[in-house]
Amino acid sequence: MASLSPYERTQVLDGVENANNSILQFLSNTKSRISVCSDSTGPSVSVGVELYKRSTIDLKNRDIKVKHVTEINKENIHYCKDLMKMIHELRHLDGVKGNFAVSETEYLTTAAALGEAKPVQQLLYSNMKTIVGQQQYIFDTLWNKAIPAEQKIKEIEEGIEPEYFEVFTDRDRERVSQILFNLAKSVKKEALILLPSAKAMIRVDRLGVIDHIINASQRGATVKIICPFSEENSEITRKIDEQASAVKVLNGNNSPYGMYIIDGEKFLRAEVKEPQAETFSEAIGFAVYSNSKLSVDSFRSVFELLWNEHTLNEELKRADKMQKQFINIAAHELRTPIQPILGFLGLLRSRKTEITKRELDESLDLIIRNALRLKRLAEDILDVTKIESQSLEIHKELLNLNEAISGAVQDIIKNQFDSRRGQIFYESIEDTILVEADRFRLNQVVSNLLSNAVKFTKRNGGTIHISMKKKDDYGQEVALVSVKDTGVGIDPEILPRLFEKFASKSFQGTGLGLFLSRSIIEAQGGIIWAENNTDGQSGATFYFTLPIISNKRDSQNQTSR
Amino acid sequence: MTTTTKTTKGNGNMKKILIVDDEADICTVLKKVLEHYGFNADTYNDPILALENFKAGLYELLLLDIKMPEMDGFLLYQEMKKIDNKIKVCFLTASEMYHEKFRENEGFAGLDKDLFLRKPIKNEDLINEISRIINSN
Question: What would be the CATH architecture of the domain defined by A10-157?
Answer without folding.
Answer: 2-Layer Sandwich (3.30)
